[in-house]
């Protein structure tokens, strides 16, 4: 195809504007999952431009040197794109790369797009296609500089399913994630089965995202290759990394992996006794422990994988809930009229992890039973998300708005709610509305579940009251899918 230099520069300039996308969440299962829509649920500020193209050359199938043509500012750049059927095993190509939103509609993701160099290196090998893309820019995300070192722990969908990101579960770590010597560029390599189809990429930590500050929060994106731009690569745009085919084989760790902390945590978690903890919390910890043991025994596990399963196990271990030791524990199937207390948590809508709103919930709820009717009451407290202190302003349980019991927070906001429990399920669907709104959820709504640990149910005196704790607490960003 032929493009004038002006058209080429115009294409690059399209990537440089100030970008900020804030859109309401529609039908999202969870704020992190919806925030992954990148342009349909996250608020990301950028002040970056796409980095200038390094000096490199591409040659078309006829052998023309594109770099030489680019040097002639008044001449046209002439390259011949390689058709998909022309991609040859053993050949490496440069292909335009487009990050698109996790709704997988093909819409460009304006919030994540500024991080990456606009071309990917595609190595067509006998064992599959290895695609490398480069974080070579430092846009601002929620006031924090998104350097390559601050955006890390990449995973991708091995099944390459073509659905919205919230439904994807077959994720594996990138086969390569390396920094250059001065930490200005990171290469991320994935195995991309069908180059015609987008590939979902999940980033476990993005600085500033969802009010996370320097800690970082998860975020995802679909990567799309524009195959009609493919040209045979003569020189790598970032030669310090080389091609993935050089050196270590696919999937092999490129570093010395330290598993000591993981081993120590596994040893601690293994000592937990099932009889001491609630069924729900112990099952969650057991699942995380099993995955941690698998990674510990895997000689090919990367440091990224080791760190990820360590953090997951630590969260589950710290989340263990002890069973009551007193003798007045009641079987939920044998309750009679009266007042009871029970442990509750706000849980992720689809994953076995706490919701971002969990820290706003005082963990002891009251249940009043009268005949066949059960009414639960809960109290809440403000949470700080980044620099914003927000409150649970509205609550819906099983599709019904909860009643406000008390308004004693700033601005007359509520701190206690009551609602009917239609059943004795361990998980009840809920939705929360935050006030003021926070960057993770511009629409103000979080969808999730109310987790009820029924094995902590205890009979209480009629005078038992909800916790009045309304001190501000830091929100813990646990999941973002």
Topology overview:
Elements: E1 2-3, H1 5-13, E2 19-21, H2 31-35, E3 44-46, E4 58-59, H3 66-71, E5 77-78, E6 91-100, E7 119-125, E8 128-135, E9 140-141, E10 144-145, E11 151-157, E12 171-173, E13 176-179, E14 186-191, E15 199-206, E16 217-233, H4 260-270, H5 279-297, H6 303-318, E17 338-348, E18 364-370, E19 373-379, E20 383-385, E21 388-397, E22 400-401, E23 403-406, E24 416-421, E25 427-435, E26 445-460, E27 473-474
Parallel strand pairs: 20-27
Antiparallel strand pairs: 1-5, 2-3, 4-16, 6-7, 6-16, 7-8, 8-14, 9-10, 11-12, 11-15, 13-14, 15-16, 17-18, 17-26, 18-19, 19-24, 20-21, 21-22, 21-25, 23-24, 25-26
Overview of this structure, please?
By secondary structure, this protein is of the alpha+beta class. 14% of the residues lie in helices and 34% in strands. It is built from six helices and 27 strands. The chain has helices at residues 5-13, 31-35, 66-71, 260-270, 279-297, 303-318, and strands at residues 2-3, 19-21, 44-46, 58-59, 77-78, 91-100, 119-125, 128-135, 140-141, 144-145, 151-157, 171-173, 176-179, 186-191, 199-206, 217-233, 338-348, 364-370, 373-379, 383-385, 388-397, 400-401, 403-406, 416-421, 427-435, 445-460, 473-474. The strands form five sheets. Strands 17, 18, 19, 20, 21, 22, 23, 24, 25, 26 and 27 form an eleven-stranded mixed sheet that branches. Strand 9 and strand 10 form a beta hairpin. The longest helix has 19 residues, at 279-297. The radius of gyration is 26 Å and the shape is elongated.
């Amino acid at each position: 195809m032929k493009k004038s230099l002006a058209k080429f520069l115009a294409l690059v300039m399209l990537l440089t504007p100030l970008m900020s996308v804030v859109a309401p969440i529609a039908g999202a299962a969870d704020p992190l999952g919806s925030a992954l829509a990148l342009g349909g649920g996250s608020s990301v500020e950028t002040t970056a431009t796409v980095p200038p193209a390094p000096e490199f050359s591409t040659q078309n199938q006829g052998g023309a040197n594109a770099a030489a043509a680019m040097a002639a500012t008044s001449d046209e750049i002439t390259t011949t794109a390689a058709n998909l059927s022309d991609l040859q095993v053993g050949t490496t190509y440069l292909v335009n790369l487009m990050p698109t939103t996790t709704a997988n509609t093909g819409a460009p993701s304006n919030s994540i797009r500024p991080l990456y160099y606009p071309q990917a290196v595609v190595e067509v090998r006998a064992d599959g296609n290895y695609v490398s893309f480069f974080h070579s820019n430092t846009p601002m995300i929620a006031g924090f500089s998104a350097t390559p070192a601050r955006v890390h722990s990449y995973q991708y969908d091995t099944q390459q399913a073509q659905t919205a990101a919230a439904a994807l579960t077959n994720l594996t770590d990138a086969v390569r994630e390396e920094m250059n010597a001065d930490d200005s560029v990171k290469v991320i390599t994935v195995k991309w089965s069908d180059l015609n189809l987008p590939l979902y990429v999940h980033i476990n930590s993005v600085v500033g995202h969802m009010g996370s500050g320097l800690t970082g929060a998860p975020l995802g994106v679909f990567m799309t290759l524009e195959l009609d731009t493919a040209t045979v690569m003569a020189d790598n745009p970032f030669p310090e990394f080389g091609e993935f085919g050089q050196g270590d084989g696919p999937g092999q760790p490129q570093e010395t992996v330290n598993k000591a902390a993981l081993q120590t945590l596994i040893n601690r978690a293994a000592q937990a006794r099932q009889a001491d903890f609630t069924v729900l919390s112990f099952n969650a910890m057991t699942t995380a422990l099993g995955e941690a043991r698998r990674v510990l025994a895997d000689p090919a596990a990367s440091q990224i994988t080791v760190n990820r399963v360590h953090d997951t196990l630590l969260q589950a271990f710290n989340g263990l809930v002890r069973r009551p030791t007193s003798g007045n524990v009641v079987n939920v199937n044998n309750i009679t009229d009266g007042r009871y207390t029970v442990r509750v948590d706000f849980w992720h809508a689809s994953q076995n992890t706490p919701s971002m709103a969990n820290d706003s919930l005082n963990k002891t709820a009251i249940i009043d039973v009268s005949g066949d009717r059960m009414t639960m009451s809960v109290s809440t407290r403000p949470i700080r998300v980044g620099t914003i202190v927000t409150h649970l302003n509205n609550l819906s349980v099983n599709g019904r708005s909860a009643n406000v019991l008390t308004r004693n927070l700033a601005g007359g906001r509520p701190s206690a709610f009551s609602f009917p429990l239609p059943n004795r399920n361990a998980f009840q669907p809920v939705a929360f509305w935050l006030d003021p709104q926070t960057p993770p959820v511009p629409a103000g709504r979080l969808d999730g579940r109310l987790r009820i640990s029924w094995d902590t149910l205890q009979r209480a005196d009629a005078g038992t009251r909800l916790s009045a704790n309304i001190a501000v607490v830091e929100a813990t960003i646990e999941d973002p899918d």
